[in-house]
Amino acid sequence: MSELGALGVPRILFGVGTGELLSLMATSGADVVGVDWRVPLDVATTRIGNFPVQGNLDPALCFAPTDVLEEATRDVLRRGGHAPGHIFNLGHGVLPETDPDSLKRVVDLVHEEGQILAKAARS
């Protein structure tokens, strides 16, 4: 990890089912800890301390009705707001049967909400 850091390469450590290992992951030398969908980001933040996180929408929610998907996306954003930095992502990979339109809606919503949060932070 230290060699990558010297090159300026961002280091994100992610593992599936690693909720109980999050505090150790934060000591790995990574710049960001990726969190799968099983641990809410605000809970993850209490486990790892003042550390940026990535994640963590459950990929199965991409099959849910739009209103459910949007609320779940907003919930991840709210919970990620407890960390000193948050990179929105699915809590694991995209399932092969996922409708690209669902992913587009998630991306659009994250951008919309991000603009609102950025505007509020400047006020």
Short précis:
This protein is an alpha/beta fold and 123 residues long. The protein is built from 5 helices and 4 strands, in the order H-E-H-E-H-E-H-E-H. It has a 4-stranded parallel β-sheet.
Query: Count the helices. How many?
Result: 5
Give the CATH architecture. Answer: Alpha-Beta Barrel
Question: If you consult CATH, what is the topology?
Answer: TIM Barrel
Could you tell me how far the N terminus lies from the C terminus, measured between alpha carbons in angstroms?
Answer: 38 Å
Globally, the shape reads: globular
Give the SSE string: HEHEHEHEH
Task: For this entry, give a set of tags.
123 residues; TIM Barrel; 4-stranded parallel sheet
Question: What does the model show?
Answer:
With 123 residues, the protein is of the alpha/beta class. The chain has a single domain (2-122), classed as Alpha-Beta Barrel (TIM Barrel). Helix content is 45%, strand content 13%. The protein is built from five helices and four strands, in the order H-E-H-E-H-E-H-E-H. It has helices at 2-6, 22-25, 41-48, 66-80, 100-122; strands at 12-14, 32-34, 53-57, 86-90. It has a four-stranded parallel sheet with strand order 1-2-3-4. Helix 4 (66-80) crosses helix 5 (100-122). 25% of the residues are buried. The model has no long low-confidence stretch (mean pLDDT 92).
